[in-house]
Automatic annotation (TrEMBL):
It comes from the Bacteria. Residues 108-129 are annotated as: Disordered. It holds the Pfam family 4HBT_3C. This is Acyl-CoA thioesterase. Residues 116-258 form the Acyl-CoA thioesterase-like C-terminal domain. Residues 22-104 form the Acyl-CoA thioesterase-like N-terminal HotDog domain. It comes from Micromonospora echinaurantiaca. Residues 110-124 have a biased composition (Pro residues).
Length: 261
């Protein structure tokens, strides 16, 4: 079954999640990408300042996000002409499920000197291959709502991976996905595409997601160039380079909890 969008509007700052938001492990729980992108949308639109795009978003995942109605609360923590810090909270069923903070940074009239992109170029999306999902995964939600093109690695292949990803549907009906929203929608998959452990034996979930963009991504596709490192004491980190077809646009980092199933 296909859905028109990840969410349906339900009034002021309220949104009903469609089954397209469901993550790979539980059809009743959302993948963290869609609600993080929804919060990014809210952070960008709250008390907006002309020429001040959303540059950095950090999301703390307090508990699983149900596939249900979400309500958002947003406030400005630090207002300014050059920089603004905005905070957002997502609630479901009377519980806070996500906290987010976003920095908006003014784009100057004169371009700043850009450093060279030293990352090796990746083959484009057309060169990638369609994936096979894990046999135990719930593939009818978020996994099916996104289009995947692996150019290195695979879901079922432990280790680093490079994969182009784009949404098949928007966040909200008839509303284009904006650059920062695309980054949050995709970046939470870094730990999944670069998994290092047997999913049947080990649980590894991220408790946060931080995305920093040095320029907005262009186009529909975003490259996840991801690697996961796991320590001996039950924690790990997944790091992703984010790129469009013109080169690197930013980075994403996730803190992981690792435990036997």
């Amino acid at each position: 079954m296909t859905y028109e969008a990840f969410y349906e509007p339900a009034g002021a700052n309220r949104f009903v999640a469609t089954p397209a938001t469901a993550g790979p492990w539980d059809p009743a729980a959302q993948h963290a990408g869609p609600p993080s992108a929804l919060l990014a949308r809210a952070l960008a639109d709250h008390d907006p300042v002309d020429g001040q795009p959303l540059t950095r978003v950090s999301v703390d995942i307090l508990r699983p996000v149900p596939v249900a109605e979400l309500s958002l609360r947003v406030r400005t923590l630090r207002a300014g002409r050059r920089i603004t810090l905005v905070e957002g909270i997502a609630e479901a069923g009377g519980q806070e499920v996500l906290h987010a903070r976003g920095w908006r940074i003014l784009t100057p009239a004169e371009p700043t000197p850009a450093t060279p992109d030293d990352a090796p170029p990746a083959p484009g999306p057309d060169a990638g291959t369609e994936p096979e999902f894990w046999s135990s995964a719930h593939a009818a939600g978020y996994l099916a709502a996104m289009q995947w093109r692996f150019v290195a690695g695979a879901f079922a292949e432990p280790g680093p991976a490079r994969v182009w990803v784009r949404p098949r549907i928007p966040l909200l009906p008839a509303e284009p996905v904006r650059p920062a929203e695309l980054a949050l929608l995709v970046a939470d998959s870094g730990s999944g595409v670069s998994a290092r452990l047997d999913l049947a034996r080990w649980l590894f979930v991220n408790v946060d997601l931080t995305v920093t963009l040095h320029r907005p991504p262009r186009g529909e596709w975003l490259l996840l160039d991801s690697a996961t490192t796991i320590g001996p004491h039950g924690s790990g980190v997944a790091e992703s380079r984010l790129a469009d077809t013109a080169g690197t646009v930013g980075r994403a980092v996730q803190t992981l909890v690792v435990a036997p199933r």
